[in-house]
Design goal:
single chain; 236 residues; alpha/beta; 38% helix
Length: 236
């Protein structure tokens, strides 16, 4: 087994930001382990696709064990999987809360714990989580409580983990996007969503992928929440 190439695990890898992240790391000759509820075979022997619900506690052990069995190591974990349910707070059902917390929080917990345990064996690694800017700057008319609770919690966890593992050679960072053109947003809503960014446009998936690559290549940065949101978090 050739274990000289770096290996990145990407959750929510089948579309949107996740698919762009896979493409970006592959261009740098990383080996990729991508997971999502449904994921197609890429035909590339250096990309391993594993179907599964990241909120299911049985998925993460399978992803990490198969990554090590196939490629021998885990260098970077990109926690990208996430869901958004926008409703007035009092209209949320218990099922809405459970669904968001299961993917956004439990999914992060299960796979990050196992990835870091693997990274500790080599005293090296990087955990990078896609979060949000809206936990810091709420926007009138945007129903974001569940997103703020879950993704804001991941921003806090990023800093805690960064300090806990700083002396163990493992870095932990986050990218906090604004509104990005992904299948999550219908094209007819793009104009309205663009207005929330002071820069005047929605972000592209490669804006986020480029930010992730930057943090992955910056060995003196840990505990950082990098806002890639067209100025949204700075104010309006």
């Amino acid at each position: 087994m050739n274990t000289s190439q770096k290996v990145v695990v990407v959750t929510g890898a089948s579309q949107g930001i996740g698919a762009e992240v896979v493409k970006a790391f592959r261009k740098l000759d990383y080996r990729i382990v991508g997971t999502a509820r449904s994921i197609k075979d890429s035909g590339d022997e250096n990309i391993l696709g594993i179907a599964g619900d990241i909120g299911d506690p049985t998925t993460a052990p399978r992803v990490i064990s198969e990554a090590v069995a196939r490629f021998g190591r885990v260098d970077t974990l990109v926690n990208n999987a996430g869901i958004y349910i926008g409703k007035p707070f009092t209209e949320h059902a218990a099922e809405d809360y459970a669904a968001v917390m299961n993917v956004n929080m439990a999914g992060f917990f299960h796979i990050t714990q196992l990835a870091i345990a693997e990274m500790e064996k080599h005293s090296s690694g990087h955990v990078l989580t896609v979060t949000t800017s809206i936990d810091q700057v709420a926007i009138s008319g945007v129903y974001s409580v569940l997103a703020a609770m879950s993704k804001g919690g991941l921003n806090a966890a990023t800093k805690s983990l960064a300090i806990e593992y700083a002396k163990k050679g493992i870095r932990v960072n986050a990218v906090a996007p604004g509104n990005i053109k992904t299948p999550m947003h219908a094209p007819e809503n793009h104009e309205a969503l663009a207005a929330f960014q002071p820069i005047g446009r929605m972000g592209e998936t490669n804006d986020i992928a480029n930010a992730i690559l930057f943090l992955d290549s910056a060995p003196f940065i840990t505990g950082e929440i990098l806002h890639v949101d067209g100025g949204q978090s700075a104010g309006r």
